Every structure is written in structure tokens, then in C-alpha cells.
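hey can u check if this looks right to u? its 327 residues, i copy pasted from the old doc so theres a chance i mangled smth
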Amino acid sequence: MSFFKRLFSSEKKETLDRGLARTKRGVLEKLSRAVLGKKDIDADVLEELEEALITSDIGVGTTTRIIQRIEERTSRESSKSIDLLLPMLREEIAGMLEAHRGDGPTDLTIPATDGPYVFLIVGVNGVGKTTTIGKLCHQFASQGLQVTVGAADTFRAAAVDQLRVWTERAGAHFVSQGQDADPAAVAFDAVQSAVAKQHDVVIIDTAGRLHNKKHLMDELSKIKRVMQKLSPGVPQEVLLVLDGSTGQNALEQAKQFTAATEVSGLVLTKLDGTARGGVVIGIAEEFKIPVRFIGVGEQAEDLQVFNAMEFVDSLLPEQFGEEKSEA
């Protein structure tokens, strides 16, 4: 379909296809049962479709909206052939994801700013924040950009050490003050160093504690406030990292963090090891926040800039029976 254009290189698209293979198989098995023996899209098919989408971690609210739109479309169409189901489903999901793309970068190009472009990375411990930062460093550095990383998760010495390894491996500049240092002071030092060195990008890691939402809100607000003394308008991006393999737990984390700070974009990690990739759709629709990156493998290049069309194209075939067997 012309609606879905090939925007990735063939290599990146193959990686995306492999990364979403388990989710695709799970979704298709459920959808195939929904249409078994059916020639037309009727109430029974829509009911089965609703159950298939909900159990694919797309979420109840998002699923309800998808079903309503397909129901409206079939009521207007002269044909209700079951062959129309997957094309309509692809278009509705892609439309939802595109609607929440926002005004931020749609690729790794950094907009021109007066001073460094600052990313504040938030998320609970264990979701892949450190590896995400390392992969971002690698990809920015491969474009010739100079990157500074600030280790503001000062409550875990192991987290600082791990981040240092990833940062130095990517050739980025690393700023830390050791365990139990003031996170805002680390962020200030990182931005100050980047300004002095005329670096292009600053990436600030933060602690991932959710046991006290007010404390988290206060801490993140302080980090922003202190950084803005050096460079007004930063951070330009607050990226929330979520583990896609946790399904609905990721959605609950999104609720907590969006209540604590103004999140501008989402990063969904570990999608290659799970059948729960449908959570990407539910979270983007529920919170109206654009998905910026998705992780579909271990390599630095496997953190991909999110593209709604390519995602849906890897998730669903145009017709039943067209899916390719996965190695």
C-alpha cells in the first residue's frame, strides 16, 4: 500500500522485522482465530478482534477506539469483506501513532540551539536506561557530534560505573561526582562542561526510584532548574525509558513518571525478546506522547528512531497468509 513507505534502510527494516517477530506471531495467531471461517467483518469478528488486541497488551481504551473506528468504516463501506480487516487495522494503528508524533526530532538530527541540546533520561531501574544512553552516545558520535554524559543517578555506584563504561566506549565525555552526590550538581557540571567544550549534546541520567513520587518530582524539577542557570530552555527533551517486555507494567510506570515530570518522548526497550510489543501502541495513545526510539536488539544500531509506518508494517501483514516464516 502507498500509505506505508519504506523509510528505513533494508538492513534496519530487517532488524525491526526480527525484533518484532514474537509480537507479530502472537498477534497474528489471535487475529487468525478471530477471522477463521468468516467472509465478512461482522459483530462476532469485531468482538474477537477486540479480545485479540487487548490480550496483545494494546490496552482496553486504545482497543476500544480502534474497534469503534473499524466499525464506523465498515458501516460506510459497500464491502465488508474480511480481506479489508488487516489493511484497516494497519491504517488505524499507524494513524494513532502518527497523530502523537509531536514537533520533536523524527530522526537523530539535533536541532540548532544556543548551546548544547540536552536530553534528560528518566525511568525506573532495570528498564535499560544505561544501555539506551550508551547507544544514543554511539549513534550521535557516529554522526560526528560531541557528547557529554552526566551521571546524575548517584544513589547506585554500580550504575555510575556501568554508565562510564558505555560512555567511554562511545568516545563521549563523562561527568560524575561519585555516589550520593547531589544529582542537580552533577547535571550542572555536565552542562557547564559541555558549554565550555562546545559540545553538541548532553545526556543526563537520573535515578529511577518511584517509592516517593513527590521526592522524584522535586528532584527532577531541581535538576531542570539548576541546568537552566547555565542554558535557558534545557532540557529540550525528557525521555522516559520503558521496558516493553513488561507489558501493562510499563503503562503503569508511564502514569507515574508523566505525573512527576513533563515527558516529551518515550523510549521502548527490549522489544526483541517479548511478544508484548503491542504496548507501544497503547502507551502512545493513552498518554499522547510520541515514541522517539525503540530497542530491538543488543547492538548500538538496534536502538532505532521510531517510525510509525515501519513499525506497523513489521507488526502486521497486509493480508492473512502473507506473513513470512521467521528463522
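The radius of gyration is 21 Å.
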